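So, can you check this record?

>
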Amino acid sequence: MMIRFAQVLCLAGIMIASSLTSFAFEVQPMRHSIFPSNGQTTGLLTVRNTRSESLPVELIVEKRVFGEDSVQTLVPADDDFVIFPFQALIEPGATQAFRFQYIGDPTVVEESAYTIHVREVPVDLEGDFTGLRYVYSFGVVVYLEDRQAESQLSVSDVSRNDSVLSVSIENSGRSFARLSNDRISLTQGDQVIDLEGESLMSIIDQSVIPPNNKMPITLNLTNLDLAPGEISVSLRETPD
């Protein structure tokens, strides 16, 4: 028997999926926010089995640790959460609820993020199976937030290479910054192009900047009416 894993990184998390078949189950919601300093430490997610056979799943927690330039590493963090149940066998067409509770340090010096992986558990297949079996996993993002924390963005290190604009954005605040709420303005001579919402998300490669870190982002200028040459960049931040 051969098991092949195909991984796809998502904005709300990680999914493992095959492009040859439809998703084997559904997970909702894909993003949670909890506020330990306010006593809000629990959350609920649901898994619906959309296949015609039973679905065994397990839930595993990893913390997102951000290094230089927001490079992300996932480290085991099962000791920071209690999940009930952490394993389940979901019947065809049925929905299973999973409750999670953060039991780590309630003091949020700066906001952090975790991923709860909802993973299908591979099972032995009967007979001499020699084909491919696709194992699915959804990553649910859990943010540890502080209602008093704010992000604080600034722009630096702007450079252009043909139709690609490289920008370094620094977040000196204690909260995650989400560029989907903000406006980036590109100025070239008397011309100003404002990018926000869908127009910004369609040309940007990263949208979430962790606290007290900086992130290099790239903007695709292909469909923008800009002449060759230098471009100045400014940013208007809108609080979440």
